[in-house]
# Entry
Amino acid sequence: MSRVAVILSGCGVFDGSEIHETVITLLALARHQQPYQCLAPNKEFDVVDHLTHKPTGEKRNVLVESARIARGEVADLAQAQAADFSAVILPGGFGAAKNLCNYALAQAECTVDPAVARFLNDMHATGKPIGVICIAPVVLARLLGPTAHPQLTIGTDAGTAQHVEQMGAKHVACGVDGIVVDGKWKVVSTPAYMLADNIAAAATGIEKLVAEGGRVVR
# Structure
């Protein structure tokens, strides 16, 4: 069985991958008996103190920090080939908006990290499912919005939804327990912690996203 790629952006909601969303994703894949491989870009990022929510002035490495969630089982995204994977999922967390792209700074004018862009464009070009969680849909909106105009959700936040539309994607409002499926482009998205106020609420939509991706793959 081919593996699902899970692209991480560090470790921690304020400067990396949202840990709950990542663990729920990996657990759901395991429960579906779906092998996966965590991937991350090999680059530096600015660290945020998760107790005070303030920058520390430190820099750390995205790949190294992602290894904390992946229990060391993470590979450099730049070395990954789309041909080796059946689908890809991007958990959210502020790292998706800082380390996978620069949406946190540039909003609708953002650009995507080259390694992330290459891998996702290759997955899209070969018709493989792409799942995006929480704020991660902005990465796909920037990449595919101008040409494919995929349907995506970040929940109900009007400002972020407007940016998604400005980048060329079609935003669909969605509750925390729902998913939005673009059948044409095999894109699945769910709001998770864009709306969730607890881990159980986030899990419902993520589990549906993983299950839907599995159906598309088969």
Notes: The chain is about 35% helix and 20% strand. The first strand starts at residue 3 and ends at 7. Residues 199-217 form the longest helix (19 residues).
